[in-house]
Every structure is written in structure tokens, then in C-alpha cells.
């Protein structure tokens, strides 16, 4: 399948909806660069009677701002949503924007919801009889790598969701990640008949969700939404015709009214601040960043590095900082909510995220913090990994280096620290890129239009049914 088919699919969606070709996003006029631009100020709700059940791994989750933004964007467009969360949230900061979400939340965790889970499964087993057990067998025959417990858990959760939707129906379920949320959606669909779509991201398709179970989930989904072209091509290479006609690419988007772009940027007194944001996990490449700071210190290049985030590698990174004698210029400040992160962007001279591909294949798609930094007017440095070049065009709106190369990373950082004119040029181009291609208004509308198109296709006469269709359990 050629990437052009994805563009043709979008044009078809626009034609079906009677939409004019998309107008170019307005550029920031001179003299107004400090004003908020974007979704919140310009959006007008669309007319829709759809209700979508959104299935997520944890709601809310600090690191999944893209899910929060998508939900807010769809609600502003007029969609009614209901959230199903596989897990209960941990004791971590919560973004204040969560309070704006209107959708009710149902938790599917066994510890907190075991009574309704058991009741729903007993009820469906009695009512559906053989269909209930055939659906369980559908999952069990996909067992591989000893994941029988995973399948049983998601089956029980899926039955719980199906039982709820029999009383309070939605038009479609939309599962974020091809892991547990997509398993829950598949089982709920098999038991209750509600169709579903899957939004895939990175770790879920490259590491966690593999083999026959992933194939079963993709086969039965009405659509699989990739958030970048790299992931889309990867799935095509794995599943080929199974995804014909149902694999759109819809990028993550930003509400630009939340990200203040100052032009020209103010410069702080003292050493320039290099900012990094992300979970402290191997694929973020923070070890290479700390090594690069050591090289820069040896070159006599003054700077401060601040890393926002938490994760399993915290102690290892701290040990590296101490070993390299960098405690006075490198700070690990822990996880922060969006308000604090946005404030940090305003203080930063540049933003660095040197992502890598780990030995088990784990990698980022396009890290959302790159969108955020670029929208905030912070010049960015990242690596040529997976889909990052789809956002960052090196020497146009940022810089890209080879992954796992601290020396090359240090040279790029030093070049930007010593060249404020280059920093400003890259920052201006970066904001322009986000304005034109990655606004929440644009990406929310694309997802909204997909849901509307799928709804129309469900009710078309069989003789004119399109290639994109729901593949359900054959009874």
C-alpha cells in the first residue's frame, strides 16, 4: 500500500462530509506573536449525535497528555464521550485540564470494581451462553509467551464493558494503545456488538502487543489510527492487506492557546538553561545527554541542564551525574504537571531529547514534548529515530543528530548555545510548523470525521458497502 492511499482516504472523507479543501492555517502576523493562537479561541462545535466510549490504560495519567488533549478536543467539537479506564491512577500529579473533561469515568480495575465485574460476567454467561465461552476461546487460542492471565483479565473487563453498553449504549469504542485497552474493546465488541477503533502509539506495537492477539485485534477493528507515518508503514509491513482501507494517519495536536510563543525570546542572565522532559526510561536517551554535558564542560561551554520526569532509571542517572561530577549543573526535578512544564519552556534556552531505540526495540514515535517545546518557541535538538524527522526537519525548525552519539549531541548543543541568531530562526520556524500542521483543532476534526464516516458506512446498504467494514465474530 502506498502512502498516497492515506491522503486519498482523507480527501474521500472530506468529500463525503461536504467539506471544502482545508484552508491553510493562518500565520502569526508580525506584532502579534505573543498572543495565544489556536484551538480554544477559534473552534466552533460541529453537529453530531455520536457517543464514543474511550478505553484507556489509566485515567488520568500524567505522561499521556495526548489522550487528555484528544478528549478535550473531541468534546469541544460536540462529541459525547464516556471513559473506561483499565487501571486506577497512581499517586502522581494531575494536570489541571483534567477538570475540564465532562465525560464520566468507569474504572475496570479488579481491586476497586470486582463486584460489578463478577456480576456482569455471570449475567452475560447466563444470557449469552455459548457465545460468551466462544469469545473467551477466541482470546485463549491467541495465547503466546504465557500471557493467559492477561487475556483472562481483559476478557472479564471486556464483558463488564459489554454489559454496561447494553444498558447505556455508545456508537463506537475507541481504544488508546493496542495493549490492554484494545483487548478490552475487542472482547466487549464480540460480546455486545459495539464496533471499535484502535489508536496505536509506539511501545504498544513495537514491544508489547505482538503475535496472534494483536492480529486478532486489528482484524476486528473498524479502523486503526496511527499517529505518525513511520508507525503506519511499520504496521503495513507487518499486516499488509489486513489493514487495507482502515489505517489513517492522524497526528497528535496541540491547543496552541496554552503555549505562549514570545518573539523575540527573552534571555535569562547566567548560564543558558537546557531543558529535557520525559519519563526516565532508556529510550529517552538521557544517559547520552548527561554525557554530552560532561563533554561541554570540558570544552568550557557554560550551561545548566534540567530534566523533568520520573521513572525507573532515576537512580542510574543520578549515579552517572555524580560519577561525572555534574551535580552543580544537572538537576533531576521529578514529574511535573502541564502548568509547571509550560513554565519551564519559557525559561529554557533550548530543548534536548536524544531518543534512542533500545535493545528490545522500544522507541518513541514523535514525543509530545517536542510538539510542546516547538510551540513554545524553544529551539529543539533530537535524534533521527522513528517518526521524529516527520516533525523536526534538521536545520530548518530544529536540529537532528545520530542516536547514541554524545559527542555529536554536544557539538549541536554548543552550536546553539553560542549562536542566538540560529536559535531564534529555528524557534520561529518550529512554531510555524506547529501552527500549520499540528493544531488540536485540525487533528480533532480529522478524528471526528473518521468517526462520522464509519457511522455512515455501518448503515449503508450491503450492495454499496465500502471496503472499510466491521469484522465481527461469526455466530
Q: How much strand content do the residues show?
A: 5-15%
Tell me the CATH architecture of the largest domain. Answer: 3-Layer(aba) Sandwich
Got a strand count? Answer: 12
Q: How is the main sheet built? A: 6 strands, parallel
Number of structural units classed as domains:
2
Q: Give the helix proportion (percent range).
A: 40-55%
N- to C-terminal distance: 32 Å
CATH fold name of the largest domain:
Rossmann fold
Protein structure class: alpha/beta
- Based on Cα principal axes, name the global outline: elongated
The CATH homology group name of the largest domain: Glycogen Phosphorylase B
Classified by CATH, the class of the largest domain is: Alpha Beta
Average pLDDT over all residues: 87
Q: Give helix and strand order, one letter per element, not per position.
A: HHEHEEHHHEHEHHEHEHEHEHEHEHEHHH
User: What Rg is obtained from the alpha carbons, in whole angstroms?
Assistant: 23 Å
Extract low-pLDDT stretches: 1-42, 463-475
Number of helices: 18
Taking strands numbered 1, 2, ... along the chain, how are they ordered across the largest sheet?
Answer: 3-2-1-4-5-6
